Amino acid sequence: MGIENTMTEQELIRLEKMKKLQEMGVDPFGEKFIPAHRSQSLKNELQSYTREDLSEKKIFASIAGRMMTKRGKGKAGFAHIQDVEGQIQIYVRKDALTELEFEIFDRADIGDIIGVEGQVFITEAGEISVRAHKLYHITKALKPLPEKFHGITDDDLRFRRRYLDIIMNNDVKERFLKKQLFWSAIRNYLLERGFLEVETPTLEVTAGGAAATPFKTHHNALDLDVFLRISMGELWQKKLLVAGYEKTFEIGRQFRNEGISNEHLQDYTQMEFYWAYADCRDGMDMVKDMYRKITWAVMGGSKFTSRGFEIDMDADWEIYDFETVIKENTGIGIYDTSEKEIKEKLDSLNITYDPSLTFWRLVDVLWKVVRKDLSGPGFLTGQPVQLNPLPKRLKTDLRKVDQMQVILAGSEMGNGYSELNDPLDLEARFNEQRAMSEAGDTEAHNDDDDFIEALKYGMPPAFGFGVSERLFSVMIDKPIRECVLFPLMKPER
User: Fold this and answer.
1) Which of 322, 263, 336 is nearest to 482 (CA)?
2) How far apart are CA 371 and CA 364, in angstroms?
């Protein structure tokens, strides 16, 4: 079956127009054109000008973009072309262009990419526009764009054709420009404070540094099973503290072979930093300041609404104690209860859970139930040592670790702690985690003999912290899949 037999009527018409361009000596897909201006920047620069000012000063512009509207027949026409900043109107007259240039415009379809050079003017309706003196064909679109007023409404199709979603929906385009601001704000904050940006392995022999299920693959050259990392180089960065670097951070992709939800993905961007000689109190002060600056950079202020919560990052931050919050909201004291009692409470709350979960994983489920009602901003403290073997213990209560989590809009939005640098204590905790894994806990930490050996050479006390792009999704109040340019999808066929 020939390709033309699978094309729609509109696509066949566009194909014929492409062939006509070729007959005219115009390359449908390949003329270089570097615009000197962008739509919104040009408008901002000229917003104080009157029609008379522009007529007198004769300001010229060079722009390029995708044709989004087109109207007019005969010897003149208007169109809007869209670039990365927005849209700007162009005005075309037959007597101002060559015969070839006007024919290119006349035959152009919505979606084609063109370039224009010409004089800027203001229409009678007050719209800054460009009167074309030269017009360039850049790229022929062989498929029509989605219908203007409805765009793509099917979520599955939007994710598969994200490029169309961005073309048709300016809010989506702006979302990813904001996301760049988010990561730039974090990177610049750390660089300005003397942190060294590092790169650590994505493939690991042992998936360490977090409680999560890894992806497993095989390294052919080494004939070795390896894992995609589940943390942003946590154990590697702590080895760099042993090496003598005092402040490090990494921003990159990490992978967890777990479920999809409004705030969970299998591969996503994470940042982790490590700060020698600091502890959790120092970290809380720094993280609070960093989050406030991120919010101002992304949102233009300190406040945002997310998941029904009104949040002000410049307000005083709450301190939520793990044991106390669970006791106050469920009546259960986590250090004097049983699996049976926790399961009965979860059943009474109509919470779905895996009945094979071990005791401390059931406690964690209970915590996540009560957490959803906490607005924040605040810090969770006092977590049990069984839920994370990597922090130092609290000197005031050895059952607990010196850890904090950022709480926003009922969820965790960052995790940090005073790093355990006692190799003997860590070895004992890894043994406990191994026993938990053998008992069926799929989220227990993997042990790492190589990391313990590094600690035996001496690692200074330190604070470590990590945050993912989930924070960005909460700031703009969107499910996390909406905040990923190209989320993983099953094949269409």
Assistant:
1) 263
2) 10
Residue 451 · residue 239 · CB < 8 Å: yes
Domain count, the chain: 2
Residues 137 and 173 in one domain: no
pLDDT tens, position by position, 198-237: 999 999 888 777 777 889 999 999 999 999 999 999 999 9
Closest CA to 366 of 329, 410, 412: 329
Contact present, 381 and 322 (Cβ < 8 Å): yes
CA dihedral sign, ordered 123, 128, 134, 136: negative
Residues 6+ apart with CB under 8 A from 476: 175, 178, 298, 299, 304, 306, 483
Nearest residue to 134 via CA among 90, 96, 79, 88: 96
pLDDT in tens, 164-208: 999 999 999 999 999 999 999 999 999 999 999 999 999 988 877
- Write the CATH number for 191: 3.30.930.10
Q: What does residue 268 show for φ and ψ, rounded to 5 degrees?
A: -160, 170
Token duo for residue 240? 């760099």
Q: Are residues 111 and 191 in the same domain?
A: no
* DSSP reduced 3-state for 345: helix
**pTM of the complete model:** 0.88
The range of the structural domain enclosing residue 285 comes to: 167-317+376-483
